[in-house]
Amino acid sequence: xxxxxxxxxxxxxxxxxxxxxxxxxxxxxxxxxxxxxxxxxxxxxxxxxxxxxxxxxxxxxxxxxxxxxxxxxxxxxxxxxxxxxxxxxxxxxxxxxxxxxxxxxxxxxxxxxxxxxxxxxxxxxxxxxxxxxxxxxxxxxxxxxxxxxxxxxxxxxxxxxxxxxxxxxxxxxxxxxxxxxxxxxxxxxxxxx
Length: 193
Prior knowledge:
The chain contains six helices and seven strands. The chain is an alpha/beta fold.
């Protein structure tokens, strides 16, 4: 007799919180917010993802959650080629105002080209679901620009209640790049044609 494979919900409980530390953050535009940085053990993909708990976070009745893929060139060095840093700052501001969690998800590469392992990928979605479960966040609202993200999280046991779409932040320097990456710019982004 073959063993029954575990369900996705079983895997959610394999991860645990490793560390928690409060820290003030100053975003590139000068906006300041206090965050609780949380790291995890036992994530399915083995990466060191980080959760930023903002504005009351998991204690909020319906926390707002954003999955953000690491983009070294945008988030750290301020590249104008993408809108990653702009979306990261906007998500931090919105979540700090309502309470919730920003998951900063590590990826292969430096963010220069799409890798296929962003928030919409199976491995990253599993790690995100594990992180949320470890934080006790199982019924969040989701701030996303990936239409499939909510479905993937629901399949993994996170009961997303409401999806709040975000739009790409287009500038003269990034619009051609955003239009050239259809795998990472789904219809919810609403790029002007």
